[in-house]
Amino acid sequence: MIKINSVCKSFNGKSILEDISLNINPGEVYCLLGKNGAGKTTLLNLIIDLIKPEKGLIEIFNKPNDKLDIDNKKRIGVLREDLALIEELTGDDYINLMGYFYQLKPDIILNRKEELAAFFLDEDEQILVKRIETYSKGTKKKVAIISALLNEPDILILDEPFSGLDPVSSKKLISYLKNYRTSKRIILISSHNIHNIKQIATHAGIINHKKLIFNSSINELPSLNGEQLEDTLCRMLE
């Protein structure tokens, strides 16, 4: 479980998030929604302890998120919005390096890499021998996704996973995430792509004006007169 209790964050004296509290439970595909600059990426960075809150507590696996040991951290996979790839490496070397950081055995790295590359890269599978700096934006995103999934994490955190992917690749990612979801795993996604989100989300959190204005099952979003999810979200963010 991910527990967030009364978290506040500001930058240079400007408040970004105020009094954010929510629980994300195993089995959920929890999606963070909101306008650009609402604080979605900030909240994800707080969860993975890249930045610290001014107030509040975040727990993962029933421990403060800044007190996780290596075994806890090996159970988490992260796709950052900026991808954070080492572009001087080949895709193959980068994925191997991520496997090394997760302390995976070489044969497991090889098997997982081949399985994920075959699924996400299709006929472009051989591109992994080339340097990442030569890749298209979409291929860079796919390599980052493969790296996030390499350790089969119990908690998978994806920041804007559909950005840069074409419709076919987005559909494949949706299919993979549907199959990846189990009663013991958490999938946490931040995305602007409502069309894709509504195909996979079980729960949603909507951030607006620094506050969490909705936090529940996505089926409980207060639609009016049969409006579509996109219309409901736009109305709530006005």
Account of the 3D structure:
- This protein is of the alpha/beta class.
- It has helices at 40-47, 70-73, 91-101, 106-120, 137-149, 167-180, 194-200, 229-236; strands spanning 2-11, 14-24, 29-34, 55-60, 63-64, 76-79, 155-159, 186-190, 203-208, 211-217.
- The strands form two sheets. A six-stranded mixed β-sheet has the order 6-7-8-3-9-10, with helices on both faces. A four-stranded antiparallel β-sheet has the order 2-1-4-5, covered by helices on one side.
SSE order: EEEHEEHEHHHEHEHEEH
Mean pLDDT: 93
Q: End-to-end distance, in Å? A: 31 Å
- The number of strands is 10
Strand order of the largest sheet: 6-7-8-3-9-10
Proportion of β residues? 25-35%
Discrete helix count = 8
Global Rg:
18 Å
Shape: globular
Helix/strand-derived category reads alpha/beta
Low-pLDDT runs of 5+ residues are none
Question: Which percent bin holds the helix content?
Answer: 25-40%
| Biggest beta-sheet profile | 6 strands, mixed
Give a nutshell description of this structure.
This protein has 238 residues and is α/β, with parallel strands linked by helices. It has eight helices and ten strands. It has a six-stranded mixed sheet with strand order 6-7-8-3-9-10, with helices on both faces. A four-stranded antiparallel sheet has the order 2-1-4-5, covered by helices on one side.
Secondary structure layout:
Blueprint: E1 2-11, E2 14-24, E3 29-34, H1 40-47, E4 55-60, E5 63-64, H2 70-73, E6 76-79, H3 91-101, H4 106-120, H5 137-149, E7 155-159, H6 167-180, E8 186-190, H7 194-200, E9 203-208, E10 211-217, H8 229-236
Parallel strand pairs: 3-8, 3-9, 6-7, 7-8
Antiparallel strand pairs: 1-2, 1-4, 4-5, 9-10
